[in-house]
Amino acid sequence: MTGHRKHLQKAFYILAVAVFLVWTLGPIAWSFSISITPQKDTMISPAPFLPENPTTGNYSQLIFGSSKEGGNVAEGRMFKIGLINSLKACLLVILVGIPVSVFAAYALARLRFRGKEVVRYLLLATMAFPLFSTIVPLYKIFSDFKLIDNYWSLILVYISSFLPLTVWLLSNHFESIPSELDEAAAIDSCNSLQTLIYIHLPISYPVIFAGALIMFISTWNQYLIPLIIAPSLSTKPIAVIISEFVTKTSINYGLMNAGGLLAIIPPVIIALVFRRFLIYGLTSGATKG
């Protein structure tokens, strides 16, 4: 009976993994199929999973600025600009957001001041509000101060959106560090800043790195906010650029899917290369010590 139960559990596990893979990789496979389908064949119904005459023209148009099908080379230029804009946004968010997160998390975890718990739970409460619920007031504020289509205003929105989660993650990690280390640092005449720099940071880099990865991936995937407050090509991220591969009379589905697949390569590579830091950081900072 025990052996039969083990076989059932194994079969259920295999079935669950198969369903998960189909659910996750199915849309990506279908997107790849559309990306190599000639534009004139994308509206065939019923659409075959694999095209009869596959083409790499959409990828050539985006990467090299040329297309065998005579497409608009400006779309390749738009794609490159959007890619650069997204990379710049991610780097700036990390460079500004991580130091702010570290100092805020350390203050909440290790320092004593009045109202600390109130600040902590207000910070947690902000994560319950969806980002799109703030679009109207954000647009009104930025419009009044003439900050629409301003690159730094976009960075400010990103940082303020991702800061609560990163601070909560880091503060829980800092709380798990034994207080004896702080006492030993105090004996050596270290102040709070020196304790943070020389004691906490060297043993916290995996969690800090996980926070940076979360900020990078979250910034890269932004669509709705930049769609509203970043209307020009000089500030639009890659997600918005891809959605605009349309003309007055048609939508270039192949080009949009090719752009979407190319756009997910940077975050996928980063997540795979640094997955050890991401997993360790999330599990280390997920709960209080």
Q: Any overview of this molecule?
A:
The chain has 289 residues and is mainly α. The chain has 2 domains: 2-63, no CATH class; 74-285, MetI-like (MetI-like fold, Orthogonal Bundle). It is built from 14 helices and no strands. The protein has helices at residues 2-35, 57-63, 74-110, 116-126, 135-144, 151-176, 179-187, 192-200, 205-220, 224-229, 238-243, 253-263, 265-273, 275-285. Helix 3 (74-110) packs parallel to helix 6.
Topology:
Elements: H1 2-35, H2 57-63, H3 74-110, H4 116-126, H5 135-144, H6 151-176, H7 179-187, H8 192-200, H9 205-220, H10 224-229, H11 238-243, H12 253-263, H13 265-273, H14 275-285
Rounded mean pLDDT is: 84
Number of strands: 0
Helical region count? 14
Calculate the terminal CA-CA distance, rounded to whole Å: 41 Å
Rg calc: 24 Å
Shape: globular
Q: Provide the β-strand percentage band.
A: under 5%
Structural class: mainly alpha
The proportion of residues forming helix, as a percent range, comes to: 55-70%
Element string (H = helix, E = strand): HHHHHHHHHHHHHH
**Main sheet, how many strands, which sense, barrel?**
none
CATH class assignment of the largest domain: Mainly Alpha
What count of structural domains?
2
State the main characteristics.
MetI-like fold; 70% helix; 14 helices
Short recap of the structure:
The protein has 289 residues and is mainly α.
